[in-house]
Amino acid sequence: MTSPAKADDEVAVGPRPQPRRGVSLRDAGPPIALVVIFGIFAVLSSDFRTVGNVQNIMDAAAVLAVVTCGITFVLMMGSIDLSAPGVMGASAIAVALLVANNRNGNDLGLLGVLVAVGLGAALGCLSGLALVSLKVPSFMTTLGVSAVGLGIATLMFSGVQPNISDEMLHGWAVNRFLGLAYLTWIAMGCVLVGWLIQRYSRLGRYAYAIGGAEEVLALSGVKVAPFKVAVFTLAGSFYGLAGVMVTSQLSAGLVQAGKGYDFAAITAAVVGGTLLTGGRGGVLHSAVGVLLVIVLTNGLVQIGVSPYWQGGVQGLIVVAAVSAAVIPQRRRNQVTK
Description:
Low-confidence stretches: 1-23, 332-337
GO molecular function, one term: transmembrane transporter activity
Structural class: mainly alpha
Strand order of the largest sheet: 1-2
Protein name: Monosaccharide ABC transporter membrane protein, CUT2 family
CATH topology: ABC transporter involved in vitamin B12 uptake, BtuC
Helix content: over 70%
Main location: membrane
Region (Disordered): 1-24
CATH class: Mainly Alpha
Subcellular location: Cell membrane
Number of domains: 1
Number of helices: 14
Radius of gyration: 22 Å
Largest sheet: 2 strands, antiparallel
Mean pLDDT: 83
CATH architecture: Orthogonal Bundle
Strand content: under 5%
């Protein structure tokens, strides 16, 4: 006869639940869509399928990919970051004034690049601190920080455009390796670093957890606020590097260097499968979304679609992507918001 204690032990011990493996249809959707769209444009336009055009697509995706890396971490937490234009503008002007230029005698080279990226990280940290201290929606605090960044950029601009003459920074956009610009390789490196942080660091795991169930994470004893600040700081550093990349492309620092990149990055992330509500997606998902957006834009130009229609087509794709991700979740939870 089995004793009650022994029976309890036998009941308590059971097979440990195994994580679900494999790739879901929703995860496979964006890569499949990328292949299909690329194939359609390749059939419709002989110029689209050339090696040179593929290189142009990769180069055009570089800056957006870096911005999207940063914003993906914020979206994984279920927050929205609209600070990219201001952060990029401030970093773009800063690096233009710190490397060899026509405004002053500075020639800090790589150190100037690091300072500009550090400025972006500082503005990102400000976004995070404002979020956790003011307890207001993230889109409001980050919009305010964007205005702060644009103000800093305008003060540094002082009405005279700084043109760079630094060979190292200028070479990022001009020099090529294996057919791709250095900027493209930098963007690939950022995607790899972002994926490693997301996959193997506590910051990446907690970003997912905050987006999935912040209350549960807090009740388990984790201090959520520092990780939120860290995520916004990381995002700001990506934006700062993107501002430096734009300066390399233009050979000049512009206050509006980051104009439009916030919404373009959110679009790319959502199209790639990163949810606005947090807890799903990631850097690789968003990288696929960047390629989808750039391939679509390039393909529409190649087949002669009017620029006035291109924005509408991209908007429809964003709506379809959001609907495909959100509708199954609503049906499962039986909640309408």
